[in-house]
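[Q] Does anyone have a clean C-alpha cell version of this?
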Amino acid sequence: MIDIQNMKLAECEALSRWIDPRYGFLSPDKFIPALEGNREVYKVDCHVLEGYGQDAEFLREKEKEIFPISFNISRTDLEACNIYQKIEDTVARYGLSRDQVHIEITESALNDSSQAIVEAVQHFHDLSYQVWMDDFGSGYFP
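[A] Here you go.
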C-alpha cells in the first residue's frame, strides 16, 4: 500500500503463491481450496506470518524500517487450531507489535459462517489487532 500523500510505501500485503517445479505458477484458487477442505490452510497462513517475523527481525538488525503487513486467514483457521494463540506466539517470538500485523478475512467467509466470523473479528479486536475484509465487494460485481 502506498501513502498517496507522500508517495511512500506504508504497508505490505503477504500473498501466498506456489511455484511448482513441474506445473509452474499455481494461483491460490488451485491449492487453497484443497487445503481449506482438509483444514490445513492454517499452516500456510502461520508460515506467512512466521516469514514476516523473520524478515522483520532481519530488518531490525540492519536498522531498516519495518512496514506493517496484512495477511489472510481462512474461516477454517478458526476451526482447525487456536489461530489467536498461534498469531500471538509469533508476534511475541519476533518482538512485533500488534499494530504491525493486520488480519484479513475474505468476504466469502462471511457467507459461510457469519456468526463465527463476527466472533473472530471481535476476538481479534479484543487482542488489539486490526481486521480487514479482503476482496470486499468483489463478489457483487460481474
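[Q] Thanks! Anything notable?
[A] The chain has six helices and eight strands.
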